[in-house]
């Protein structure tokens, strides 16, 4: 294993330690090491690493740079709300806070380069300096010149510096249309089942043997591997269900080696956890409480999505119903639903071709405020004065995200809205006010 | 103003401090335009006192209501911060998750502020000094959110620990110097802070409130309105926070107005997997209101009362419009203020002693207004002729009578509320709730007219007559509990009677055991007879007889007792639940102008604008503007004429036609013959006035310019309704 990680510039035992900390990524680490070369050698200006979530990109970089004690700066692009923050962090970790404070108020790229050069002339690099940018896909949204400049930062600052970009997206989606310096691409493939087993087995419970924990992981992977290969999620699941797995052991019913009995015990729980995989319906703390309570009373704790009922004031309910009707009925049909003497309109003659598909499949359509109010006044059973609070209810429905405003914010210019609630939700709401909404929906005529 | 400058330019003149208008005090505002100004000071004081009391009481009440949920939240934060320091396997595996409390508060957003206020105060007192709450409207972008969080966290420290003020000021100036703030700054600050408290003298720390763990207090960030946040901002913020969670014990509290599933709508799995969410559900706002009404309205404690219509308005605003308890209390405040402001006799609306004193100080003018009160005139009519004369002539006699009447009114209130509650406990468990589910509904019925004349009351009584024994006894028992603390004489008498009744009910059990065989006897005997006869006609006859006999059968002792109990209750209702309008001098305590309350709380801006435009006389009160219905005098303001003309047009209005029509109307107003030559050409002044009117209409939102057709404007309102 360690044989893969051999490099002239580094000490043997350090490499060994590195190898221990990143199981199943020796090939990639070895590749990286050979790209990086010996500490004092110039490295390739920019390296682009991509792979799915939880495939060990940041971990490998972190361990390598840390264990080999190489000068580096790790920056997460999410955090850099402005480029200034990015520059500051880089300068801070290479040259200390004095250098960082030299940056002007809203620095440009050339400010950064100037200060970097100035600083590195004072303390030239003895070893290659590394800048690791996590979530590099966000760099595409910043200034157009930032990414190309970073890719050839080595040339710009005339220093031994290498940029390493980490991303979940392939390089093709990055390439600016003006062209740029092409970085070296390195792919981190997904872990295989065996590798997942090996990695997950590492965080074993201290009071149980490694074999025991590994057999547990084996069972877990057998159930979940077909639906979920995300290492992080699997780790979360493993932590959640382990206490249940150990239960018969603690009670002294079975021995550690009796995997079959253990499997019989844990299987129903894993099946249950399967229903909510990825959802994080309840917090892990609550999950544990739930499992303890299970024998006594199940269903006392419900997940987040179980609570969908929303209490609304009376007129807000009708406003929401009116909005739903306006969103899902074609405007031409309003006459049919809301006028007393509409005459008979057959559905088939009345339809235009594109309206034949269900409006519910097409999703909500925008409607103007006037139409909303017209429908509102005809569905609500008593006369309502157009008071200020009716209008403020519309806007509070927008803030509650039950309606969405489609057009711009100008109130004078006939604002348009869309209804953002589901059929089930509106049915529940209309039931509370004794309004048969299905009778008013064009799709269910 | 002049300057000494030679050159032309703009000069700023700051108003000198002396010239600043003296701001009027609250009292001046109150006395201004107040009815019967001579005792306005007393009324102002009474009003203020009453309001302060009401406010203090409601605050206490709300704190109590929120206590349960706040306590569980505090527990949650404590537990989270303590598990963090444990190093057992499970909590290690969870270390990367940020503990999050999802606090579901309901859609009454205006009320939430208070809850969050007390939540953050409690947190600061007992768990951690580091609490920051943010609102969506101040965090449009990630950097604003970040900035707010950092500012709040560091500021709270300044206010909490005074001895460290210098230190934090330094860091905050540093923060301002380097404008871009990041969580790593916060991390450093936090480390410095905790290190300091670790090495600092323990004696100093003792003075600050007790904390679970002074070394590692969690950093709590409260998102007041989760729905309104930009999801992208929130996601990024959580991502960033999760990078620091190992160094910084962060914790979130999400305030949710709708339902917890919004979290899943807003956050993708990659983000929500970083959180460890626990759900907390608060009391529903209707329950909240019920308690507030119970403690604020349905009590003789406050002399100020609302009449049925005003209650109705306030209730409908709550139920139909906003669900906000805070706005309800604001409504009560408005009614209170209006009452004391507009009713000169409200000097008597106070505690008994004060009221009696104030009666003696009434002026002749006030006494005259008492004589004009509707309820007082009704009272006078019932008196002897000699007494009537006395009441109208003799001021001192009237004062004495007033004192008696005020006492009577107080007694009425003392008896009204307990009886109301008794009736409610009896009827609230009946099927279909003939008298309402909530006590406030029953209260509204009682305020309107004599409740015993109500049809629903009759049905309720009928249903009560069918009640089973144990149910009846249970509700009567509850009535006893209600009556027990009441201190009025009549209620004490009622209590004694009720207890006697209950005792009889209980005796019934022992008596019933003895009488039971006889009852059985008379039921079984005809059945025995039945077996002998086989003829169909005979059978029918006997069955009918049996039915008759059963109906006419003597009531069982329980039934007799039940009827007695219900008659007793009926008597109580009839003597104590008469509507307040029937009470003499009720105008002193009851505020009745529902129209004012509605106009202030539930304004209709659009209707008023339209009223102003279509009938300017309504606001301007100029005789020349008075017209028949639906027409506008041609002497009306330009904008009214333009508005009237625009109502006659379709969706698109031709500006030139509009101008012509306008010019015709206006020149008719000036007395010119519309056909004469010089009118043909529109004068420049008229043109300008027309353009001004049109732009005013545009400003008010009735029309807008359009690109669909040249020289046209589009109408924004449909119809002129």
Write the layout of secondary structure elements.
The complex is a heterodimer of chains A (445) and B (721).
Chain A: H1 12-21, H2 26-36, E1 46-50, H3 57-67, E2 72-76, H4 83-95, H5 97-101, H6 109-122, E3 129-134, H7 146-151, H8 153-157, E4 161-167, E5 184-187, H9 193-200, H10 210-224, H11 231-250, H12 259-275, H13 284-293, H14 314-328, H15 334-338, H16 347-350, H17 359-362, E6 367-368, H18 369-379, H19 388-399, E7 403-405, E8 416-419, H20 423-432
Parallel strand pairs in A: 1-4, 1-5, 2-3, 3-4
Antiparallel strand pairs in A: 6-8, 7-8
Helix pairs in contact in A: 4-6, 9-10, 10-11, 10-12, 11-12, 11-13, 14-18, 14-19
Chain B: H1 26-31, H2 40-85, H3 89-93, E1 98-104, H4 109-126, E2 131-134, H5 142-160, H6 165-177, H7 183-199, H8 202-207, E3 219-223, H9 231-244, E4 250-256, H10 261-266, H11 269-272, E5 275-281, H12 285-296, E6 305-306, H13 308-322, H14 325-342, H15 352-360, H16 364-372, H17 374-381, H18 385-393, H19 395-427, H20 439-448, H21 455-464, H22 469-483, H23 489-532, H24 536-552, H25 557-576, E7 590-591, H26 594-601, H27 605-614, H28 617-620, H29 638-647, E8 652-654, H30 655-669, H31 677-680, H32 684-700, E9 703-705, E10 712-715
Parallel strand pairs in B: 1-4, 1-5, 2-3, 3-4, 6-7
Antiparallel strand pairs in B: 8-10, 9-10
Helix pairs in contact in B: 2-4, 2-12, 2-14, 5-6, 13-14, 13-20, 13-26, 15-19, 18-19, 19-22, 19-25, 22-23, 23-25, 29-30, 29-32
């Amino acid at each position: 294993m360690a044989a893969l990680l051999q490099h002239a510039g580094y000490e043997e035992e350090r490499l060994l330690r590195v190898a221990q900390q990143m199981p199943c990524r020796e090939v990639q680490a070895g590749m990286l090491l050979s790209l990086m070369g010996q500490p004092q050698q110039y490295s390739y200006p920019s390296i682009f690493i991509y792979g799915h979530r939880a495939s060990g990109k940041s971990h490998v970089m972190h361990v390598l740079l840390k264990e080999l004690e190489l000068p580096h700066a790790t920056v997460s692009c999410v955090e850099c709300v402005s480029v200034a923050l990015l520059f500051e962090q880089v300068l801070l970790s290479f040259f200390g806070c004095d250098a960082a404070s030299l940056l002007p108020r809203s620095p440009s790229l050339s400010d950064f380069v100037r200060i970097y050069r100035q600083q590195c002339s004072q303390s030239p690099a003895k070893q290659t300096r590394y800048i690791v940018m996590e979530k590099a896909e966000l760099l595409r949204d910043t200034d157009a010149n930032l990414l190309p400049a970073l890719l050839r930062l080595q040339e710009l600052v005339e220093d031994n510096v290498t940029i390493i970009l980490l991303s979940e997206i392939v390089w093709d989606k990055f390439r600016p249309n003006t062209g740029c310096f092409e970085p070296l691409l390195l792919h981190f493939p997904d872990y295989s089942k065996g590798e997942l087993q090996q990695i997950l087995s590492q965080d074993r419970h201290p009071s149980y043997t490694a074999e025991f924990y590994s057999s547990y992981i084996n069972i877990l992977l057998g159930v979940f591997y077909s639906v979920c290969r995300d290492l992080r999620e699997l780790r979360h699941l493993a932590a959640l269900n382990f206490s249940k797995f150990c239960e018969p052991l603690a009670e002294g019913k079975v021995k550690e080696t009796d995997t079959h009995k253990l499997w019989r015990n844990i299987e129903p729980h894993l099946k249950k956890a399967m229903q909510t995989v990825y959802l994080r319906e309840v917090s892990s703390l609550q999950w544990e409480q739930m499992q303890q309570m299970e024998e006594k009373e199940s269903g006392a704790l419900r997940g987040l999505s179980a609570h969908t009922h929303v209490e609304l004031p009376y007129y807000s309910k009708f406003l929401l119903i009116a909005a739903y009707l306006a969103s899902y009925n074609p405007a031409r049909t309003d006459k049919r639903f809301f006028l007393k003497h509409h005459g008979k309109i057959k559905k088939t003659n009345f339809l235009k071709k594109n309206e034949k598909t269900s409006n519910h499949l097409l999703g909500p359509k925008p409607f103007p405020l006037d139409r909303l109010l017209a429908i509102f006044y005809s569905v609500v059973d008593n006369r309502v004065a157009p008071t200020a609070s009716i209008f403020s209810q519309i806007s509070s429905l927008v803030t509650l995200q039950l309606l969405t405003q489609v057009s711009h914010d100008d109130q004078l210019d006939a604002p348009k809205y869309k209804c953002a609630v589901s059929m089930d939700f509106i049915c529940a709401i209309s039931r509370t006010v004794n309004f048969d909404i299905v009778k008013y929906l064009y799709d269910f005529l | 103003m002049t300057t000494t400058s030679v050159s032309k330019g703009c000069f700023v003149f700051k108003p000198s401090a002396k010239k600043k208008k003296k701001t009027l005090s609250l009292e001046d505002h109150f006395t201004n335009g107040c009815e019967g100004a001579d005792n306005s000071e007393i009324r102002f004081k009474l009003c203020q006192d009453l309001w302060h009391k009401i406010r203090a009481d409601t605050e206490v009440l709300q704190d109590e209501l929120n206590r349960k949920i706040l306590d569980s939240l505090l527990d949650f934060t404590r537990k989270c911060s303590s598990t963090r320091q444990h190093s057992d396997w499970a909590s290690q595996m969870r270390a990367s998750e940020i503990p999050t409390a999802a606090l579901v508060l309901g859609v009454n957003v205006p009320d939430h502020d208070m809850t969050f206020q007390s939540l953050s105060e409690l947190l600061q007192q007992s768990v951690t000094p580091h609490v920051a709450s943010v609102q969506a409207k101040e965090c449009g972008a990630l950097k604003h959110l970040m900035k707010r969080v950092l500012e709040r966290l560091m500021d709270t420290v300044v206010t909490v620990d005074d001895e460290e003020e210098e230190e934090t000021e330094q860091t905050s100036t540093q923060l301002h110097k380097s404008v871009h703030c990041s969580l790593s700054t916060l991390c450093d600050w936090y480390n410095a802070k905790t290190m300091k408290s670790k090495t600092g003298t323990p004696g100093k720390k003792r003075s600050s409130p007790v904390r679970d763990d002074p070394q590692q207090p969690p950093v709590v960030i409260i998102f007041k309105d989760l729905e309104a946040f930009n999801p992208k901002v929130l996601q990024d913020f959580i991502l960033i926070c999760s990078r620091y969670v190992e160094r910084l014990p962060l914790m979130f509290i999400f305030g949710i107005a709708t339902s917890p599933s919004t979290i899943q709508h807003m956050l993708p799995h990659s983000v929500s997997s970083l959180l460890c969410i626990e759900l907390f559900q608060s009391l529903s706002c209707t329950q909240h209101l019920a308690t507030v009404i119970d403690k604020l309205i349905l009590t003789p404690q406050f002399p100020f009362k609302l009449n049925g219509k005003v209650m109705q308005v306030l209730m409908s605003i709550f139920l139909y419009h906003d669900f906000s308890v805070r706005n309800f209390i604001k409504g009560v405040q408005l009614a209170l203020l209006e009452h004391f402001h507009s009713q000169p006799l409200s000097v008597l609306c106070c505690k008994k002693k004060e009221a009696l004193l104030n009666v003696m100080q009434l002026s002749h003018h006030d006494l005259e207004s008492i004589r004009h009160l509707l309820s007082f005139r009704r009272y006078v009519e019932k008196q002897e002729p000699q007494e009537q004369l006395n009441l109208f002539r003799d001021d001192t006699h009237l004062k004495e009578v007033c004192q008696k009447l005020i006492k009577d009114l107080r007694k009425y209130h003392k008896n009204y509320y307990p009886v109301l509650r008794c009736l409610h406990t009896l009827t609230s468990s009946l099927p279909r709730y003939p008298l309402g589910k909530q006590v406030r509904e029953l209260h509204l019925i009682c305020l309107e007219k004599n409740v015993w004349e109500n049809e629903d009351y009759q049905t309720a009584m009928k249903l009560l007559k069918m009640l089973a024994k144990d149910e009846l006894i249970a509700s009567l028992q509850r009535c006893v509990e209600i009556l027990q603390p009441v201190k009025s004489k009549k209620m004490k008498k009622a209590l004694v009677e009720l207890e006697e009744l209950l005792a009889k009910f209980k005796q019934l059990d022992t008596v019933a055991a003895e009488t039971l065989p006889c009852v059985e006897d008379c039921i079984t005997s005809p059945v025995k007879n039945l077996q002998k006869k086989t003829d169909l006609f005979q059978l029918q006859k006997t069955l009918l007889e049996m039915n008759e006999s059963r109906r006419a059968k003597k009531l069982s002792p329980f039934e007799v007792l039940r009827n007695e109990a219900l008659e007793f209750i009926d008597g109580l209702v009839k003597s104590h639940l008469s509507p307040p309008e029937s009470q003499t001098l009720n105008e002193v305590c009851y505020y009745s102008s529902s129209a004012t309350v509605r106009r202030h709380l539930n304004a209709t801006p659009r209707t008023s604008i339209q009223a102003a435009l279509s009938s300017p006389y309504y606001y301007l009160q100029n005789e020349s503007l008075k017209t028949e219905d639906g027409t506008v005098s041609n002497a009306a303001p330009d904008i009214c004429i333009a508005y009237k003309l625009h109502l006659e047009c379709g969706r698109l209005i031709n500006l030139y036609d509009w101008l012509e029509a306008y010019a015709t109307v206006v020149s008719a107003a000036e007395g010119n013959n519309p056909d004469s030559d010089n009118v043909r050409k529109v004068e420049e002044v008229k043109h300008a006035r027309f353009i001004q009117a049109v732009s005013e209409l545009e400003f008010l939102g009735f029309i807008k310019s359009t690109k669909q057709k040249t020289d046209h404007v589009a109408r924004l309102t449909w119809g002129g309704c």
